[in-house]
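Posting for a labmate who doesn't have an account.
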Amino acid sequence: DEERHTNKKKAIDKYDDEGNRVAYFNDDDMSVQDMLRREKNSTANDFDAEFRSSLMKMSHKMNFNDMDQVDEEELLKMYSEKQGKYEEKKRDALRRKAIEQHKRTQAIYSSCFYCLANEKNSKYNLISLGNFAYLSVPSHKPFVFGHCTITPNEHVLSLREAEDECYDEIRNFMKSIVGMFATQGKSVLFVEYVRSLESVRHTKIDCIPLIPRQEEIALMCVRQSLLDCDMEWGDNKQLINTQRKGGLRASIPKGFAYIHADLNCQGGFAHTIEDKRYFRDSFADEIIGSIVELDKDVVIKPKKWSSEENKDYISKFTALWKPFDWTDHLHQE
């Protein structure tokens, strides 16, 4: 009997003579060094125990009734082969997943409306072309006169993910657009909505000119819309003041989806997006609509325009943009 109980852990007194609790676990009286030593030994023992258990299972499958009959070297070899096959299957699964992801991504690239090299890109609405980005007007009726978009030439998922050359060109377009509308006494709201990086969508920046009355409320509307998201979907506040933080790149890490609204290239508000289900496809357009006083239906389903209307808009916008087109010198070199 005494031998049978030698492996049992000795219980400790967890209460003193007056009934006050002085310990909670059986190892409360151990020193830190003792605990580290025990952890080191137990880790090695656990590994050995797992290995022995695997050998036992394999020996049973081979119908060995007596472990003395077991050739441990042979079992060790079988164990290693079994682990090797498992790792190989794991690698194959990862390889298949990577191939499927690559095919899906290539399918998205080949059908992307915004990739400049893609034949599906309607270059008719293109206004100005840089080396890494271009300026165009919408393919639908604009929300206001002067509504235009800046888009990377290649398939870039967000301005935050863009290479330095692309980022700099987009900033050049933004600054020129601010200068252009300043001559009319207007400000410009730039909105980028990256709903999900997993969707592999080509990013674009909507440029919305604002009259003074709209400028005054623009960032307040953006801020309130983003705060409403936090109140509706959770306690994790993700509203970021990019003006205080020093711009988009200093505010949002790479690898995050987000929405960012910037007023006159001076910053504004951003919000990271962890779950796209909580953000509608039309979320950014709805914010813009509330600022420029458009009905929700108009921004969710913008009207298509006739070829004549489109041609007229392009002509008027181009005339306004020409004195500020910084890309002219690129084509002259």
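Reply:
Got it, the structure tokens are right above this. The longest helix spans residues 72-110.
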